């Protein structure tokens, strides 16, 4: 009985980690760039969402580093939200 419980727990952990890896893997050209850009963000989910939107609209241009450097991508830099502030992280 104990062996079956241990086996169930191990299989559950393996399946959970596999699903997590599949959900975080992004095959688009923006995925890796936005992962780097948002690596130090406090709200990574929000950062990744808007970074990917901006990246796709700006022909896959994402500024280097985790902050600043927006002059590298004028489209990314100039995109604004409805409040008039920068849309792109």
TrEMBL record:
| Cellular component GO terms, alphabetical | cytoplasm; plant-type cell wall
Q: Which GO terms describe its biological process?
A: gibberellic acid mediated signaling pathway
Coiled-coil spans in chain: none
- Any signal peptide, and if so, which residues? 1-25
In terms of domain of life, where is this protein from? Answer: Eukaryota
Q: Which UniProt keywords apply?
A: Gibberellin signaling pathway, Signal
Q: Name one Pfam family in it.
A: GASA
InterPro entries, sorted: GASA
Query: Which family is annotated?
Result: Belongs to the GASA family.
Protein name in the entry:
Gibberellin-regulated family protein
């Amino acid at each position: 009985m104990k062996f079956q419980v241990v086996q169930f727990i191990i299989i559950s952990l393996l399946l959970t980690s596999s699903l997590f890896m599949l959900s975080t893997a992004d095959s688009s050209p923006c995925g890796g760039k936005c992962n780097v850009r948002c690596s130090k963000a406090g709200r990574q989910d929000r950062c990744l969402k808007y970074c990917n939107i901006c990246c796709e609209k700006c022909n896959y241009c994402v500024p280097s580093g985790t902050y600043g450097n927006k002059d590298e991508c004028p489209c990314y830099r100039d995109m604004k939200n409805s409040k008039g502030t920068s849309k792109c992280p």
